[in-house]
Amino acid sequence: METDRTDDEGTHPRLPLYLSPYEIWNFGRGKDYAFPIVRKYRKYISAFAELVPRPSDTARPQPERGFVPTLWREYRTFRFLPFVAVNPLGDPIDSAEKLKKLLQLGLNQVVGELSARGLFPFIIAKSRFRVALPVPDCAMHAELNGPPCPPRWEPDPGLRERIGGKRITVVAIIDDGIPFAHRNFRDASGRRTRVEFCWLQSVAKDKEQKSVLFGREYTRRCIDDLVEHFGHDEDMLYQEAGVNAELDYFASLIKRHATHGAHVMDLATGYDPERDENPPEEIRIIAVQLPNSVTVDTSGFGKDMYMLSAFHYIFDRADIIAEKYKVDKLRLVINFSYGYSGGRHDGETELEAAINELVELRRKCRGPTALVLPSGNTFLDRMHGRICDDDFEDGAARLSWRIQPNDRTPSYLELWFPADFIDPTGYSIELWDPWDRFWRSLAMNSAYSTSGDPENDLALCYHDTDHPVGQISVDLHRADDPSAPNTAPKTGRWRVLVIMAPTEPENISLPAAESGKWTVVIKRQEGSQRLTEPIHCWVQRAQDPESLRSGARQSYFADPCDLLHTRQGDFKQEDSEDAYVRRFGSLNGLATGCTTLVVGGYRLGAGLGSPLKCARPALYSSAGTLEPGWPDKEVDCSSMSDRSRALPGTIAAGVRSGSLSLVQGTSVAAPFVARQLARIFTTADDHRVEAAEQDNYRSLLQGYPQDAEEGAANGCCEEEDEELTEARLGKVRVRPHRQPGVDRRD
C-alpha cells in the first residue's frame, strides 16, 4: 500500500487514491468507445470523492485547482464530497494516472478551502473517486473564489395570507427536461408559480449569477417575471431564459413536445385548471434538471457528482424556505425517478451511501424527509442472475452473456460476492468468445485487498490488434480502512467487472467486440473459501432513454433453463427453478438504501375504473429477492404505471402548457406516491409523521389493502399468488390521483 507523502506544492499529504474500473476504462484504454463528451473531455472535471477523514491542522489551499457546488450547511464533515477539479490546459485526459493526478490536486484545493473556512478540519487519509461527465466551460462559474453565494430570493409576502393556517411543505423533483414555467405549477390565478427554486445544471451560465457553481438558477420571482412578459409564448419564454442553450453533446430537451421530467413533475405536483384542480399553494416546489448527458448514459457512469449536488442544493434551498417562511421542521418529499440495474444492492454503493447519510441527517436535524424512488423496469429483461455454491461443477460455474449486434455503446457485467467473502485466493475469472475461443483469465488475489484499486488487478482483452476491446477487473469495492476504529461499519465487497467494447463502434476504424453469446467462467481451486450466499450478477442497463439515439442495445443473460413464456404463451413472471437467471432481485440498484421508499408499478387488472384489489404488477416492474439474506431490500408500495394491459403508460403534461404526454414505467408510478405523501404531510400531526419515519413513511399512505376497498371488481380479477404479488407491489397499492376512464382527457 502506498504510504503517506507530501506533494510537490507543499500542501497536506497526498495519499492512496481509488478510481473505479468504470473510470479506468472510460478514461484509459476504452476511451475511444466512450460518449463523445468523454472523448473530448473539457477543462472542468466533475467528480465525487468518498473521504476517510482524520483530525489535523488546517490545510493550506492551492489556487485554481478545484471548486465545490452548493453544499448543505448542516453537513459539515463531508464524508462524501462533490467537487469540480480543473484541467488547467484543457489537454485530453488519455490515462487513468493523469486523471487521478488532476483529481488529487482538485481535492487538495477543495479540502484546503473548506478547512480555511472552518468547515472541514481534516486531512484525507484515503479517498475514492467517481468521475462524472464534464462541466461545459460556458456553464462553469470559474470566477467564484469559494462556495456559491446565497441566492437572491425573498419569500412571497402574500403566501401566508392566501393559505391560512395550512402547513407549508416542499416537493423536490430531480429529473431531466424541467418545464418550470408550465401552467400546472402555478397558483389558481396563473400568475404566480409554486416553483421557489429551479437549478438547470448544464445550461449556459448567467454571468451576474453567483448562487450556483455551474448552470443557472431560476427563483420564483424570476419565473413570475418571465411568465408575465412571455407567458403567451412559452417557446419565447424559454429562449429568453437561456434554457435552450444546452451545452453538452445532446440538444436541449426543453424544445421537445414531451420529456420524462415534465411528465414526472406533473404527476408529482401538477394541477391542471382544465380539470378544475385547485393548486395547493402550501406545496412549494424545488426542481433540479440534470444534464442530458447524465440521462443518456444509463450504465451508472458519469452521474454521481451531479446527483449528489442536486441533493445538497435541495436541502440547502429547503432550509432557506423554512427560515424565510418561518416553518418549524419543514417537511420535504423528494421524487427521484432514476436508477440503474448494476451496483451492490445493499445500500452501500457510493451514491446511495451518500444520499442515505444526507437524508438521515436531515430527518434528525431539520424535519421529515421522504425519498421516493422507482423499483426499476428490468423484471423480464434477463439482466440479473445468481451463482450459488452448488452451481460449481468440477470447480467452475458458467454464465452465458449475449451481446447484441449493432450496439454502439460498451456493455457492462458486474459480479458481486457476498459480504462475508473475505479471501478470494484460488478464484479466477475466464472469458470465452462466441466461437468458444479462450480470451482472457484474471486471478483474484487476497493480498490485493490492502488497496482495493482495480488497476492492481486488471486484464485487457485484445482481438488481433493492439487496441483492447474489453476489460476484466477485480476490486474490493469500498475497501475498509485498516486505520478505522473497530466500531466503524464494514463496507468492503469483492466485485468483478467485465466490460466489452461496442459491436458497432461509432468510429468504424476501431476494432469491435464480437456479437453473440460470450461465456464468463468463475473458477475456484480446491480449498478456496466456499460461498455462504450466492454471487449476484447484474448486467448494466443500456436502453436508450428519451430517444436520444445513443445506438445502445441491451445485452442480457442467455440461460437455456430460463423459460420465457408460460404454456399459454404469456410472459412467464416467475423464476425457473434450475435457471441462474432471476427476475426477483432485479430491483433498481439506486433504490436499496435504508432511507428509500421503493415504488413498483401496477396495471389495473380488471379494466379502467376497477378497484385496487384487482391491480396486477406491470410486466416490467422489478422486485427484490424472495429468499432471505442479501439483497434484502423490498418494494414498499406501488402505484399505476399502466392503465391496463392494452393501454400502457400514464397520461400527464407535456413540456408546453396544455400539451399531453404518454410515458410508461415505474418512474411514473413513483410520483403518484410522492404526491400523496406531500398532501398528507400538509395535514398530518407531528406524532403520526414521526412514527412513520421508521418505515420511510409507507404507513402514511392510503390505498389497498390498508384502506377498505370500496365496491366490487368491475369484472373478474386475475388469479394471483399473494406472495409474488406483494414482492412486486409492496404492502400498499396507492390510487392515482387522476382516475383513468373518468378524466375526459384519458
Task: Compose a concise summary of this entry.
By secondary structure, the protein is of the alpha+beta class. 18% of the residues lie in helices and 23% in strands.
Overall description:
- The protein is α+β, with helices and mostly antiparallel strands.
- It has 3 domains: 5-134, no CATH class; 152-198 and 253-285 and 319-379 and 583-746, 3-Layer(aba) Sandwich (Rossmann fold); 388-557, Jelly Rolls.
- It is globular.
- Helix content is 18%, strand content 23%.
- The model is unreliable at 1-15, 57-61 and 741-746 (pLDDT under 50).
- The chain contains 13 helices and 31 strands.
- A hairpin with a 6-residue loop joins strand 1 (5-6) and strand 2.
- Strands 8, 9, 10, 11, 12, 13, 25, 26, 27, 30 and 31 form an 11-stranded mixed sheet that branches.
Q: Please, how many helices?
A: 13
Q: Report the CATH superfamily of the largest domain.
A: Peptidase S8/S53 domain
Q: How many domains? A: 3
Average pLDDT metric: 86
What is the level 1 CATH name of the largest domain? Alpha Beta
Low-confidence stretches: 1-15, 57-61, 741-746
Distance between the termini: 62 Å
Largest sheet: 11 strands, mixed
- Could you tell me the radius of gyration in angstroms? 25 Å
What portion of the residues fall into strands of 2 or more residues? 15-25%
Task: List its salient traits.
11-stranded mixed sheet; alpha+beta; Jelly Rolls; disordered C terminus; 3 domains; 13 helices; 18% helix; globular; Rossmann fold; 6-stranded antiparallel sheet; 746 residues
